[in-house]
Amino acid sequence: MGASVAATFALSSTASHGPSDILVVSLVDRTRIFKFESDGEVEELETYLGLILDEATLCIGRQLDGGIAQVTSRQARLTTTAGDLASEWRCPEGTTITSVAADGPSVLLSLQGAVLVALQLVQSDWHVQAERTLDANEQVSCVTLSPLLPTLCVVGFWQDSRVALLSLSDLSAVAATRVSEDDALAVPRSLCIASIMSGAPPSLFVGLADGNVITYLLESPANPFTARKSIVLGTQQATFTILPRDDGLQNVLAICEHLSLIYSSEGRMVYSAVTAADATSVCAFDSEAYPGAIAIASTETGALSLATIDSERTTHVVTLPVHETVRRIAYSPALKAFGLGTIKRTLSAGVEEVESHFKLVDEVVFQELHSFALKQDELIECCMRCELDDGTGELGERFVVGTAFLDEEAANAARGRILVFEVTESRQLKLILEQSLKGACRCLAICQGNVVAALIKTVVVYAFEYQTPSSPFLTKKASYRTATAPIDIAVTGNTIAVTDLMKSVSIVEYTPNRGPVPHSLSEVARHYETLWGTAVANVGKNTYIASDAEGNLVVLEQNVASFSEEEKRRLRVTSEMNLGEMVNRIRPIAVVPSASAAVMPRAFLATVEGSMYLYATIAPSKQDLLMRLQSELAKVVKSPGHVKFSLWRGFKSQVRDMGNEGPMRFVDGELIEAFLDLKSEEQDVVVGGLGIEVPGGAEEVRGLVEGLRRVH
Asked: Side-chain half-sphere of 643: how many Cα atoms within 13 Å?
């Protein structure tokens, strides 16, 4: 565009409601016009129907009679279909238009925030419907009009974070509210009224200067600002664009550093991220050549582009046919590539043959780059991506693979291998190290630059060293023998959490050599309970989540601050519940939550039945409320088969059964979200039975649960 785009508008050259074929682009000091033909050809027009093009356009729209209303910083104009000037209204000398909103023949102007002017087109002539000079402590920051409120307008003020509903007939105040009580940065900077949810009143969106978006339901002029909700979309103000839907409802696009689509789904309002980088202005552009498109102006590329946007959040799936079972996966952000461990079973002459490969797949084009075949009867057990010494003292990106052999009858034969791969400049796998093992390698991790391998009965720490710059090798530094067999490991600093086949979780500390003292792996804490472990992960400081083969989840904590050595060595259970599915993998995630977040996501859980769960810790201020809410909902919400909630979610194993007591300090998100499916009267009953005072009542709880629902 050659300059920053301030706004974009779509027009139809034939009728006010026909397909758009004219795109108006408002720059800082001028306006450009682009005409789109039905075959997609684009032409920039030097003039168009008498529009002013040497100024920035604040607002433009076609009227029912075919004329075009254009508002610039100094005037409001109406031109005819022949391009003649039909009517014009100019600002008083010494003032400019700083904010404008239009709805058909009605236009609301803010003159430098000090004067409000309501204009009305009557028989192709501008008439001043109302004018109001504001007090010195009432400076206008933003305005909006909507056909959903034909006789009213909404105005935001700089002072007191105030938003007011005004009558268009005389611009008198009908109602007002403060969007924030104590934040000086919470100034309304943009407004939008849209019909988001079916059967519900219109929604008012208020974009604040600090990046928050406040929503209200405009139930009636007497009770306009209800059901207040707040969400943080970024650190800068959001502006809004309405996108019509085929069902008569509307979506809203919030334009900020994190572009978001706002729409309704299952009776709730959903905010969904949009993959458009650095957009400054967006408008709907439903043209014949590009049906359902939107025009996006970007400051990052300085370009104007057309795109389509989903009407609601969808998952876009790109499929890569592997023709083998993918057993393990690792991802390298630096290489933008995946490492896949695969198994292929074939039947030849009545005999089953098993092949295993490690494949390199490009993330961008999503296609296989190279495949490395393992030996006969060798299966891939685990793989990881890590950074290891490249022989020059620098760190290089590497894939490490652990394997196991099916043939266990051959005496003195290797039972497994550790393979280290380098990715060459030509995007091929290069085997740079092969280490034979006396047992299968079940798990791999990195601890202080060393490779940690979980073998059949031991956990071993290997140092990655070089004889020559091109000849790396592994040196065994320390080992730890488990009670039965290590199933999974999780490394945090120099601490290794090991989940055992039968004896739950133990915490092992790795200590490098100090002079004559050799490297060591020593157990510092243990969970003294029989638990057939399947996975473990660190989800906080000295806090671990573990799963077992009977479908239970247990959160364990090491009390390192205790004065008792026995207490320090004992992992105590802080939370437990029955998930009902056996967890196969737990992967911790690092998310920086906002200060007001109710939950902090900590890990993803994958089960053998193909389910994905999100584990999150609850903010201390919300723990009591959510646990009480869970107890009350368990009395109201009926499960399939009318199974008691406590019986379903209570910890159950061969050793003990807590079905009568239910989950301990665990909140079931699915049950909590069922609060939104209750009728208003039932919600009031549930909140009334919590036993604690909730200042906002059912509305506050509803907002909290909707926020939790948006997490996933």
From this structure: 10
Mean pLDDT confidence for 110-134: 89
Predicted confidence (pLDDT) per residue in 247-268, tens digit: 888 889 888 877 888 888 777 7
pLDDT at 370: 95
- Whats the size of the chain, residue-wise? 712
> Does 504 share its domain with 561?
yes
How many Å apart are CA 520 and CA 444, to the nearest integer? Answer: 18
316 pLDDT tier (thresholds 50, 70, 90): low
Element (H, E) at 292: none
| CATH code for position 584 | 2.130.10.10
Alpha-carbon span 546 to 548, nearest angstrom: 7
Instruction: Kindly report, residue by residue over 154-187, the tens digit of the pLDDT.
Output: 999 988 888 999 999 899 989 989 887 666 668 8
Neighbours of 6 (CB within 10 A): 17
**Is residue 701 assigned to a domain?**
yes
Q: How many CB atoms lie within 10 A of CB 18?
A: 13
Tens-place pLDDT, residues 421-440? 999 999 999 999 999 998 89
Query: Which of these, 558, 538, 557, 615, lies nearest to 583 by C-alpha position?
Result: 615
Mean pLDDT, the chain, integer: 88
Determine how many CB atoms are found less than 10 A away from the CB of residue 661. 11
Q: Which residues contact 391 (CB under 8 A, 6 or more apart)?
A: 466, 468, 469, 470, 472
Inside any domain, residue 685: yes
645 and 590 share one domain: no
Structural domain that includes position 299 = 76-308
Question: Who contacts 254 (Cβ-Cβ below 8 Å, separation ≥6)?
Answer: 205, 207, 213, 233, 238, 239, 240, 260, 261, 262, 271
CATH label of the domain that carries residue 672: 1.10.150.910
Angle at alpha carbon of residue 101, lines to 100 and 107, rounded to 5°: 95
